[in-house]
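Lab notebook, design round three. We kept the backbone fixed and only want residue identities now. Task for the bench partner: fill in a sequence for the structure below.
Input structure tokens:
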């Protein structure tokens, strides 16, 4: 299973002429997850040819406007398009209070049905789960209660070697146990170890989304070993004092988080609008964590 991440918005609170506020789509086979929904998200979905009807699950990290102001517009458009589905929204509980009056004002019967799932803002929790993937929320450190999200593929069973089935005359009834990790005893009493009978499954894929947040070491244990880490980098080190005051991070701090969490790759975004060019962010982060990329709008990142 592969994950495909599309960046819709990479800027912080103030949009620029070429960077939108935070929004991303994580496409997992069978599911399409929208992560944050800043102003202009539906325009970016159009530009990137992502069908509105695929959006069934929306995750909102916190209630600063640049992370949810695009939500009512998106829901309204989905309704006008006649999308007939439940839309699950995982967000701080106050979000429903904020946008329900706008939903009530939409004329006619709603074709979509928003279903709100309040997040626990103080401790990690599983917020979504099916047979293939689970999504965890966890608290980060910001000026208002905020969570990050960890999207994690569930481990698969080992693959049994076909030649071993024939070589040891393994009955069909035993295959399930062997794939789950059991050894096999032959008719003459020999014990065949599982590692000889099987090939290990691929490592489960994982993606972590951490914004908005100051540098917060407790996050590292939760996202340990993640394949791709998106971590905010609102400022450069030259504005570290401002980052600390506003409870945001610098590019170097994002890289430090990737390093201590043993991430495979780092993606930085949520750039302050005061920076017109972004190459210095990548340069600063790569001094600490080499495998760093910039979150570029419209670009897809494959895990």
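Proposed sequence:
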């Amino acid at each position: 299973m592969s994950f495909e991440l599309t960046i819709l918005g990479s800027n912080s609170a103030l949009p620029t002429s070429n960077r939108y506020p935070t929004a991303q789509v994580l496409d997992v086979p069978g599911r399409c997850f929208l992560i944050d929904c800043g102003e202009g998200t539906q325009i970016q979905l159009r530009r990137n040819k992502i069908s509105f009807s695929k959006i069934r699950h929306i995750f909102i990290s916190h209630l600063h406007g640049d992370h949810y102001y695009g939500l009512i517009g998106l829901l309204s458009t989905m309704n006008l398009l006649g999308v007939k589905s439940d839309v699950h929204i995982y967000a701080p509980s106050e979000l429903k209070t904020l946008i329900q009056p706008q939903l009530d004002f939409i004329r006619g019967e709603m074709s979509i049905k928003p279903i709100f799932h309040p997040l626990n803002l103080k401790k990690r929790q599983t917020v979504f789960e099916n047979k293939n993937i689970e999504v965890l929320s966890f608290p980060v450190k910001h000026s208002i209660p905020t969570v990050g999200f960890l999207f994690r593929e569930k481990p698969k069973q080992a693959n049994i070697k076909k030649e071993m089935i024939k070589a040891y005359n393994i009955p069909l009834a035993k295959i399930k146990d062997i794939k789950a990790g059991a050894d096999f005893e032959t008719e003459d009493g020999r014990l065949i170890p599982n590692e000889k009978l099987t090939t290990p499954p691929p490592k489960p894929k994982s993606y972590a989304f951490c914004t908005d947040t100051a540098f917060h070491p407790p996050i590292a244990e939760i996202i340990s070993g993640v394949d791709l880490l998106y971590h905010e980098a609102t400022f450069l080190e030259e504005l570290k004092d401002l980052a600390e005051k506003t409870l945001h991070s610098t590019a170097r701090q994002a890289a430090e988080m990737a390093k201590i969490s043993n991430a495979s790759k780092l993606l930085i975004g949520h750039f302050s609008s005061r920076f017109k060019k972004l190459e210095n962010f990548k340069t600063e982060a790569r001094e600490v964590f080499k495998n760093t990329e910039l979150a570029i709008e419209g670009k897809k990142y494959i895990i």
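Keep this in mind before ordering anything: Residues 207 and 270 are 17 Å apart (CA to CA).
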